Amino acid sequence: MNLLKDIRIASFNHMLMGPAAAQYLADLGADVISVEPTGGAFQRNWAVGNLFVDGQSVNHLTVGRNKRSLALDLKAEAGKEIARRLVRSSDVVMENFRPGSMEKLGLGYEDCRSLNPGIIYASATGYGRDGPYRDRPGQDLLVQALSGLASATGDSDGPPVPVGPTVVDHHGAALLALGILAAVIGRGQDGGRGRRIDVDLLSAALDMQFESLGCFLNGHRTGSPRGPGNIAAWFSAVPYGIYATADGHLALSMSSMDALAAAFELPAFAGVAESDAFARREEFIPALRDVLATRTTGAWIEHLSDHPAVWHAPVQDYDALLEDPQIAHNGSFVTVPGATGAPITMVSHPVTYDGERPGVRLVPQPLGAQSREILAEIGYGPEAADALAEAGVVHCGEPAAPA
């Protein structure tokens, strides 16, 4: 996929949100140069679940594909000069350090703009570049707590519940990629003008809740930020929620009371108006709960195939995803030989273009795998590269073969 083949991105990113945003753009053909410390970025040295695949962090494997790796000591003056040259030759600079960190390195927005007036400078932070939370650690769970997301999740009579995956980081990454693409298009329309793009986790978490916040901000109130009983959201009517079956769980989504009455043989539901389905939801929940517990999930799926007006889905665990026919049809998971030769499986790029899903051009690379290649592109000959490597300013690894 080469939609962004003429765009070079210098990615000074670590952890998750920034590297994930860069990967979205790399999947589309951008030349993403991942600038890491000579000891490797955080996501290369730490792994969720403490999982390393043949010595490679699963976090690096998750957000490292289709990028070239430049390992650079940015504390050394020679390393800073390499970074400045890279900025001059790039279209986009990305970074997700705490506010002020890049300025201390001489690579803040004004510094980069003086080197390259057309640069698009994209920053990801926890709470914004300024404000009372500026210097707080920005992390997904903390932002779920602060943003109301955890408070709006779980049972009404239970505690706040965080969403299991790091959804704020993921959504923030998509917004960051969106902002960069908008700036790239805008630069072409504005005679090469660069821009500064800022995305913060707190704003991303609020954006994830725009439907429920829209209801709240415009006057609707309930006694709890969470839905009662089985209802999944505080603003939703019956049956919207998850119900236990004889052997698992079934999700029931938006369905009329008449449709529920026919499907579950609940005559008391027939003729109930939509407004009453919300106002009287606590009254109706026990009947639904009782009837759903009488059959297995599979039996209900088969039964409800004759009742298409009842929107439903089984609650699947990760093991079930591997057998899901739609996921297989979509090609949502891709397995390729990794940099060490061991097979690695990744979640594919989530968008198709003319029916095609972007593939893996470069598997997640060893640290500094393209250091020499990139140094040559910005004006350093072989002897200069050797000297920089010997001085520890750069680390030069061996590149893995293209996928």
Write the layout of secondary structure elements.
Blueprint: E1 8-12, H1 17-27, E2 31-36, H2 42-45, E3 52-53, E4 56-57, H3 58-63, E5 67-72, H4 77-88, E6 92-95, H5 101-104, H6 109-115, E7 120-125, H7 140-147, H8 167-189, E8 195-200, H9 201-207, H10 210-217, E9 241-244, E10 249-252, H11 257-264, H12 274-279, H13 281-292, H14 297-304, E11 312-314, H15 318-321, H16 325-330, E12 333-337, E13 343-347, H17 371-377, H18 382-390, E14 394-395
Parallel strand pairs: 1-2, 1-6, 2-5, 6-7, 7-8
Antiparallel strand pairs: 3-4, 5-14, 9-10, 10-11, 12-13
Helix pairs in contact: 1-8, 7-9, 8-9
Q: State the CATH topology of the largest domain.
A: Rossmann fold
Radius of gyration: 25 Å
Q: Which stretches of 5+ consecutive residues score pLDDT under 50? A: none
Please state the average pLDDT score. 96
Instruction: Indicate the CATH class of the largest domain.
Output: Alpha Beta
Report the end-to-end length measured between terminal Cα atoms: 13 Å
Shape summary = elongated
CATH architecture of the largest domain: 3-Layer(aba) Sandwich
Number of helices: 18
Main beta sheet strand tally, sense and closure: 7 strands, mixed
